[in-house]
Amino acid sequence: MREAKCPICRKPAALREPGKASAHPFCSDRCRQVDLGRWLTESYAVPAVDPEDQGEEH
Ligand SMILES: [Zn+2]
């Protein structure tokens, strides 16, 4: 069985019902949206040197 952890809330994100659009690798569509919003925010944000961002690319 495949197991993945939600990148957002770190909960185990099991695959959802077959045939249904899954939020994989997120635990829910909600977390998927959160990640998307975060990604977009970072993309459009002015590149800034933030020490806290260093070394956290994964
Ligand atoms: Zn989640």
Low-pLDDT runs of 5+ residues are none
CATH topology of the domain at 1-14 and 22-44: Erythroid Transcription Factor GATA-1, Chain A
Quote the average pLDDT: 76
Helix content: 25-40%
The DSSP helix count reads 1
Q: Under the CATH scheme, which class of the domain at 1-14 and 22-44?
A: Alpha Beta
Under the CATH scheme, the architecture of the domain at 1-14 and 22-44 is: 2-Layer Sandwich
Q: Could you say which structural class the secondary elements and strand pairing correspond to?
A: mainly alpha
Which overall shape is indicated by the principal axes computed on the Cα atoms?
elongated
The biggest sheet, with number of strands, parallel, antiparallel or mixed sense and barrel status, is: none
Bound molecules: zinc ion
Strand fraction: under 5%
- Compressed to H and E, one letter per element, the order equals H
How many strands? 0
Question: How would you describe what is shown here?
Answer:
This protein has 58 residues and is mainly α. The chain has a domain at 1-14 and 22-44: Erythroid Transcription Factor GATA-1, Chain A (2-Layer Sandwich), CATH 3.30.50. The mean pLDDT is 76. It is built from one helix and no strands. The protein binds zinc ion. The site of zinc ion (ZN) has 8 residues, from loops.
